[in-house]
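Quick review question:
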């Protein structure tokens, strides 16, 4: 995964601007996993800002075409990437489906919502990559329906080694618009964070599981 620096920093700038990403080293967040973290990311907020969501849509659509040409279907990972996935599919004029974390317990008991044919080429859209577990769960569901998953494009990744390992093990190519490294670089250059906070943020990234 090689990021385009201008896009990576611009994406980070916009997400910080609307508080889709918050950096609070002195008042850390607790993730669902139990990890303590000085950063919290909710990229769905950008859907409320037309100019920013249009930027993200166009950049992701551009990546899809550059990397994979025109796939048959765009798939969003529920729930965080349904909105941006639809926007990317619309920009490319392609069908859209989304993948639930698990099959519904009622009705048709679908895990994949929308029309998908066996053998179709699919690019998966995701909003955020932490460990990659939920994202790759969606890939497995698509492959179980004999879809040909070409790769995944996400808005942001923390860049954890465990995620890199998980994607490699599943044989899934991951690309993102931005990552933690470019986020911290942008936050530092624009004085969004202080020098003392910078050190804390870098320390967290080196060992997030044990950070207090």
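Suggested answer, residue by residue:
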């Amino acid at each position: 995964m090689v990021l385009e620096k201008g896009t990576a920093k611009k994406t980070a700038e916009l997400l910080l601007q609307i508080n889709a990403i918050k950096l609070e080293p002195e008042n850390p967040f607790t993730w669902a996993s139990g990890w303590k973290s000085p950063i919290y990311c909710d990229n769905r907020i950008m859907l409320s800002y037309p100019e920013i969501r249009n930027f993200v849509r166009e950049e992701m659509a551009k990546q899809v075409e550059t990397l994979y040409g025109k796939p048959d279907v765009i798939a969003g990972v529920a729930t965080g990437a349904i909105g941006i996935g639809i926007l990317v599919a619309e920009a490319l004029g392609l069908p859209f489906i989304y993948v639930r974390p698990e099959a519904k317990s009622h009705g048709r008991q679908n895990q994949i919502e929308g029309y998908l044919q066996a053998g179709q080429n699919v690019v998966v859209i995701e909003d955020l990559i932490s460990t990659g577990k939920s994202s790759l769960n969606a890939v497995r569901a698509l492959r179980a329906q004999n879809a040909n998953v070409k790769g995944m494009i996400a808005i942001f990744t923390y860049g954890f080694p465990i995620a890199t390992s998980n994607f490699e093990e599943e044989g899934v190519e991951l690309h993102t618009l931005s990552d933690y490294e470019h986020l911290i670089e942008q936050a530092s250059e624009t004085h969004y964070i202080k020098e003392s906070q910078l050190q804390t943020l870098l320390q967290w990234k080196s060992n997030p599981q044990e950070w207090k």
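Why it works: Helices lie at 5-17, 50-68, 82-92, 133-144, 161-170, 180-189, 195-206. The mean pLDDT is 93.
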